[in-house]
């Protein structure tokens, strides 16, 4: 790879935070780019979290987490409307079973008031069960926050990148940043395969790897603490077990193990919280599953092991201080975002604004673009359309009459649209369209998705990957393993 | 704007069940029969089953899947009153038998039928396998997906394979992969006996020296990007892995062949009640579901091991659907069935399920059933009345047993009457 153009700002890391920063920058008259090491944006913690837009009563008043969580929460309606990303204010409930836990709930209620969380109330167990009939009978008190929500985080990161690109920003994928140097003409950023980018300012939004990137800038930062969270997804058949997101009272290390409705209509249970020695262990474990089941069945007794259809794990960028850390280097021209763990998803729109302010303070000129378009073309979700709309859509594009994923009723038209918007992999298609997310988990549609991806990208099916480099789905053409072309059976 | 179309019998699904049902409905006098098929061709899953072993019972020949399908497809195509809609996906079905479907050229199609035959088939179960601890690398497929990649798309998913589950598709794919030059390291089955047919164990594993590990399961998947290996452990009587029995098998591909489940999302949109034991609708001997005028047959009703029985069952459903449609034509108002004359059939000792689940008193019909565990020297009984004796029964082989007039006589003498329950059991012969 040769040298790229000179940018005003280069954002390193395409998670929900990096893409939010990129979109915010694309409002202004400047040249911005994003470098992401994976095949698509959103493959870090952004893909593998609980998808909760927190209310903001969990965090200590005055902390960055409390301020940016409450501020970020408030921005979600407009953000998801502009970008057509699934978002719902389903509300959340923190539950207590004992007088001691009730005391804790009252403290969180007060903390929420201090943080400016709107719409909170304390309910007795029976009142709460009238709203959520499947809550355990042992629950005696509930702190309910109506402003809590759920979102599709991977779709949000993709949408932010797509919209930023539509407004002139550049998005580079499969670019792992390995070196940063600073000279008179600004920063030179080099990638693993030899590409270089020039920038006057950089934003380090590399998530769990932000400490490594900060060190490339010569900063001596404490290491982030990889903390693994396993999550399990239940069949849609039991998708209406609860409407609110259900929290226990938290532990010192995490918000505890939750019962989480998702915008896709499945209930999810998790996450665990286990500190890991490494940054690359995303395995799920029998012990993790047992712990989650035991815990969540005490919140909602109807949860059953046999309803689980899928599992995943994410790694939190555990903060050594317990709060988000905003570091700078090079007189503020490099901004480093460290320890963006939960509520990082919720806070991300507010983090992006804060980062823009920091860059402005360091001298970056932010002149609004008169023609900035905050909206991206609407995404057709065939299953959700009325009969009349379905008819209309098929008339315009017959590919919408071909249902590829039967479990989730996802059409070829939607898959092609996702590829045109930036999906490159089978998992990317899955997370954007839900093809392969249903109860058969791609057992049926994978070959069709591979074929459509190959056709749209103009490559051989052998090049199609599950999630980027080294994850090719197919090994060879049939017969390739036969020496001398032996007979068929 | 779209208009509603009408038909006498609508058949949803153009696989072996749908084909036989459509032909039988026409033979029984239905004037217009409509087949709705989501694929671009008829034949269903048979089209990707290029091995032979189909039709031994019905045609006394060993046919491949496509060959078996072609015993039916030309007849369907030759009949001008069987209307075939390909590339047509049914989205919903109402209890009043109104179908909403989509088609690339016709757009949204509404079809009102006098009778409906559900013949959507089944899909592979993956769930059991998805909570296998470990990473989620590329290289994990259901056996059916692998079959489609190899046989239809022309690609090999990998070259060193472990197969979890000894279902028939998995066994067939073990042979296929071997013949394609890949190495099948092992087939791993959690039960103490194989899930697939004995003939497939012999012809697909033993003939190729592929080891079959019984009472074992995959307890860990290794590999970050691509599967690098699996840990296989023995299990105890409660299917719990036994510590100390772990063995690591290097491989680049894990195939799942852990069973099939009837595909009944659509049936549920019409409010058709399902039997949790079969995963398919509750039906009577006409293969009519508990929603009047909606019939079911083939793998959507219960998972079959032989297509021959699918065709047989589909003919019953097709014929009865035609009768229902004719009755509705003759008497638009009341064509309900007389459920009052029925008895309920329930599986008893060592029986996994029995079909039909409802039966009209005195009806001479074939009962289909599967046992829960293998057993030698067995007497099959119906509420104490002996139906048949078998030398050997296995869960993998569906049993077909005729319920005859003499059995009914004994049942009536024992005081059995409509409204009551009958218990089918597999007991050791005295
Ligand atoms: C199990 C779990 C549950 C959670 N639940 C919630 C929740 O419900 N609500 C909530 O608000 N928050 C939640 N969080 C936290 C939230 O997911 C994170 O705060 C958020 O996703 C952080 O986004 P990010 O962009 O900083 O990080 P990431 O999404 O990890 O993005 C970092 C990106 O940087 C890229 N990158 C790294 N190094 C380099 C390099 N050298 N060169 C180029 N690119 C690089 C990575 O590939 C990655 O795409 C949860 C986290 C976990 C793990």
Give the SSE map:
The complex is a heterodimer of chains A (489) and B (430).
Chain A: E1 3-12, H1 16-25, E2 32-35, E3 52-53, H2 64-83, E4 87-88, E5 92-96, H3 99-115, E6 120-124, H4 125-131, E7 141-145, E8 149-151, H5 153-166, E9 170-172, E10 177-183, E11 186-191, E12 196-204, H6 210-216, E13 225-234, E14 245-247, E15 258-261, E16 267-270, E17 274-275, H7 286-299, E18 308-318, E19 325-329, E20 334-338, H8 344-361, H9 387-396, E21 403-405, E22 410-411, H10 412-420, H11 426-433, H12 446-457, E23 476-477
Parallel strand pairs in A: 1-2, 1-12, 2-9, 5-14, 12-20
Antiparallel strand pairs in A: 3-8, 4-8, 5-7, 6-7, 10-11, 11-12, 13-16, 13-17, 13-18, 15-16, 19-20, 21-22
Chain B: E1 4-12, H1 16-27, E2 33-36, E3 52-54, H2 56-59, E4 63-64, H3 65-69, H4 73-78, E5 82-85, E6 89-93, E7 98-103, E8 107-118, E9 122-124, H5 127-130, E10 140-142, H6 143-153, E11 155-156, E12 160-164, H7 168-179, E13 183-188, H8 198-205, E14 212-213, E15 216-222, E16 229-234, E17 247-250, E18 253-256, E19 260-262, H9 265-269, E20 294-296, H10 307-330, E21 342-347, E22 351-355, E23 358-360, E24 365-371, E25 375-382, E26 385-393, E27 399-403, H11 405-413, E28 421-428
Parallel strand pairs in B: 1-2, 1-8, 2-5, 8-20, 10-18, 12-13, 12-18, 13-14, 21-28
Antiparallel strand pairs in B: 3-4, 6-7, 7-8, 9-19, 15-16, 16-17, 21-23, 22-24, 24-27, 25-26, 25-28
Helix pairs in contact in B: 1-10, 6-7, 7-8
The complex binds flavin-adenine dinucleotide.
The site of flavin-adenine dinucleotide has 41 residues of chain A, from helix 1, strand 18 and helix 8.
List key phrases describing it.
heterodimer; A: 489 residues; alpha+beta; FAD/NAD(P)-binding domain; D-Amino Acid Oxidase, Chain A, domain 2; Arc Repressor Mutant, subunit A; 3 domains; 8-stranded mixed β-sheet; 5-stranded antiparallel β-sheet; disordered C terminus; B: 430 residues; alpha/beta; 7-stranded mixed β-sheet; 5-stranded parallel β-sheet; 11 helices; 28 strands; binds flavin-adenine dinucleotide
